[in-house]
Amino acid sequence: MLPRQRSTLRAKLRIAVISPSVSRRRGTERAVAELITRLVASHNCEVHLYAHEVEDIDVVPFGKSVSGSATHPIWHRVPRIPGPHLLQFLFWMTYNHLWRSRDRWLRGIRFDAVFSPGVNALDADVILVHAVFHRLRELQKSRRLSGVHELHRSLYYSLVCLLEGAVYRQSSLRLAAVSKHTAAQLRHYFGSKDIVVIPNGVDLSYFSASNRLALRADARRNLNYSSTDVVVLLVGNDFHTKGLPTLLNSLSLCRNLPLRLCVVGSDASFDGVKRITDMSLRDRVTFAPESTDILPFYAAADIYVAPSREDSFNLPALEAMACGVPVVVSAHAGITEYVRHGVDCLVLRNPEDPHELAETLRLFVNDPSMAAKFGANSPTTASTLSWDRHAESVYRLLNCPSSSASPQS
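Above: the chain sequence. Below: its structure as tokens.
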């Protein structure tokens, strides 16, 4: 089935990319943005993007370009309905299929491959998995749920799990994962075989130690941090899974240290203000909304901490390392396959233990030379993972028969 028969009159690989949103605000959406721009610019692909919304990248709205000659991804805008995310997702699955069917039968657009980051289509040829919802649902069930937002998330996870079971077991599907950690989960839950591992990358021209240092003074001033504050940064959504409760508990164990926590992201089910008020941490913790311009937060930070209970990769940790920020990551994150504990970062054995994390934070504060060593070594590690390499791997997967794609897991 893959690749589909290509017209001899069209040398370009024509790809449909299915993603509800493409931007640089969140990890998966950022990965899609980096991928499709490179598929067009570096691999001469004709990329048709089916999405609700697109920002931060140059696209050509469908109808304003000549098929086969676009120098940017072609955006087919899929309508969005108002309402809760669960309902929006159901309509998204229906609408993006209808829009592609309309283009196929009424406009004669045939694709060589349909690509999806995760479960966004029942008929994808290639799926790159950024998260396994079977695992996320297990984590959610392990804690006491309360409130409308948690109930809604539980229903949404259950729906996606049903779709994962139906889609990931398809014998015709070419399946890839962003880490060996995620590939192992796909084998565990679905019996998947021949999984290609394609790690995320980082834009070293933007995320760099020199760019971070150039922004550092202004970034700390704008965020109201003093020269004596030791700023701990966490970026992400779904705060429970990202380990924010553990991080807050560890912060309360380090009240004698000048630690300040900055959390960038959003989670409607997590009442951050109430939590930090109850813990008497309001003067130590600030929350900022997700942003397309994340570099100033890395610039302001002294330590990046990610005590994730589960993380298929952890792209912000990689970006922080590229910027020369000392990093603490969870043993349950896929990025640990590419780092060296004690050389370019510290890896938490038990990310749910606030005492282990508190001791780690004390090490950084009390031993500045260790933080300096990690900050100096981490850009070299980050440089081995690039978006160009990522796009090359995806392109090979899209452009070859499944029998000739070499699994790297």
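The domain at 209-382 is CATH 3.40.50.2000 (Rossmann fold).
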